[in-house]
Amino acid sequence: MAQPLTFQALPSREHVLSSAENFVLYVLFEAIAEGGGGARLPLNLGVVLDRSGSMYDERRLEFVVEAVKFLIDNLNPDDQVTIVAFADKAQVLTSGAATDKAGAKRAIDDIDLLEIGGGTQMALGMRAAIDEVRKNLTPQRLNRVLVLTDGQTYEEMACVDLVRQNPDIQFSAMGVGVEFNEKLLMRIAQDSGGKYHFIGDSAEIPTIFEDELTGLRAVSVRNGRIDLVLSQGVQIREAFRASPEIYALGEPLVGADRRISYQVGDLEAGIPASVLVTLVLPPRKPGAVRIAQTGFHYQVPGSDEQAVSADVTIDYTLDRALTSKVNSRVMNLVDQVSIAKLQTKAEEELKAGNVDRATRLLSNAIQGTQRLGNVKATQALTGLMDQIQQTQSLQGKAAKTTLLNAQAVVRKTQMLDPKMLEEMKQQ
C-alpha cells in the first residue's frame, strides 16, 4: 500500500568540521501529503462574522454576505455549518446540516437587521460558534471555525483561551482593513493550526472564503505532529514553522527525555508542512553520528494514528572541502526565515522609536529578498521602508496597510519552481 505522505529530515549539510568548537546546523523536517487517494471528510464549520458598526465601511458587510452565500452554495448535504454574528452580543443565524441552503442564505441576508449593538465582542461570537461545532464534533469531520473581524475586540485573552481550551478545533482568522489586532489573529491561527489572512481590500473577502473552502477540500492527512528526540549533547536554539507560512514556534521546551513535539495540524495535498530547527552540535571526533531521531505522526480518514520515522545522521570530518557543501533547498528556507525575523525586528525597533535601526534592518531584509529573487516580497518591504522614511512611524491608514501587507507577504513561504528543485537535488 502506498504511503499517503512523504516525510524527510534534511540537514543543511551532511558533513561538519571535527574541531574543539560547537557547530550550528539547520535541519528541515518536512511532510508532504499525497492527494486523490483518501475519502473526502465532511466539514463541521463555524463562521464567526463581525457585525460591528465599522463593518458598514467600504462595503465590508456586503462582501461578507456575498462570501458566506458562496460558501453555503458550495457545501455538501453531509456538511455541517453554523453562522454567528457578533457585536456587543452574539447571535446564531443558522446551524445544522447544509441542506436548507435557501434558508441559510435568507438568514445571512438579514444580518444587518440584528439587534446586537455596534461594539466588538469577538470572544462571544467564537464561544457561540464553538458550542454549535462541538455538537457535531467527531474525528470523521474537519472541525474548523472561521473568524472575520475589522476591529479591536474586548477581552482579547478570552479569545486566546477559547482556542487553547478547544485543541480539537482549528481556527482561521481574517482581518479586514487596518484597525484589527494582527498579533491576536495571528496567534489564534498559529496556536490552532489554522490560517491567518490579511484582507486589505474588502472586495477580496469572497476570494479568501473560496481559498479556505478549497484548502479544506484538499485536506488528506490530519493531525500532523513532528516528534524529535535529540542525542546527548545536542542543543536546540530555535524553531520556526517554515511552510506553508513562516512564524516562530516559541521557546523550545525540551524535557529530561530530550524530546520535543511540534504540531503541524491538517495537511493539504501537495502543500509542504515543515519545521526548521537550529541545532548546536557538540565537538566530536571524526565519524558518523546520529544527532537526532524524528517521527511524523498523522491520521488519514477512517484509520488510526500512523507514524513514519527517520534518523538525522551527520558525518564529522577533518576535510573542509566536504563541510563546504550545503543543501541549497534548506538554506533557501533558512534565508526566508531570516528575512521574516528581520522584518519582525524592524517593526519592534520602530515601535521603540529607533527609526534608523528599523530602516537598516529592512534594508538587510530587502537585500535578502533580492538575492532570492522574491520580487513580491522585495516590493512589499521596499514600500514599507518608504512609508517609514516618509512618516518616521507607522501611523495612518496607508502606513498600516503597507505594514500588514509586508507581514503577510514575508510570512508566506516562497515555493521553488520544479526546475530549481531538480537542480538542487543534483547538487
Describe this entry's structure for a reader.
This protein is α/β, with parallel strands linked by helices and 427 residues long. The chain folds into 3 domains: 5-35 and 220-326, Immunoglobulin-like (Sandwich), CATH 2.60.40.3670; 43-217, von Willebrand factor, type A domain (Rossmann fold), CATH 3.40.50; 329-411, no CATH class. The chain is built from 12 helices and 16 strands. The chain has helices at residues 60-73, 101-109, 122-135, 156-165, 182-192, 205-217, 320-323, 328-351, 355-372, 375-391, 397-411, 418-425, and strands spanning 5-11, 15-17, 23-33, 43-50, 80-86, 90-97, 142-149, 170-176, 196-199, 219-230, 235-243, 247-248, 259-268, 273-281, 287-299, 306-317. Strands 6-5-4-7-8-9 form a 6-stranded mixed beta sheet, with helices on both faces. The protein has a 5-stranded antiparallel beta sheet with strand order 1-3-14-11-12, covered by helices on one side. The chain has a 5-stranded mixed beta sheet with strand order 2-16-15-10-13. The radius of gyration is 23 Å and the shape is globular.
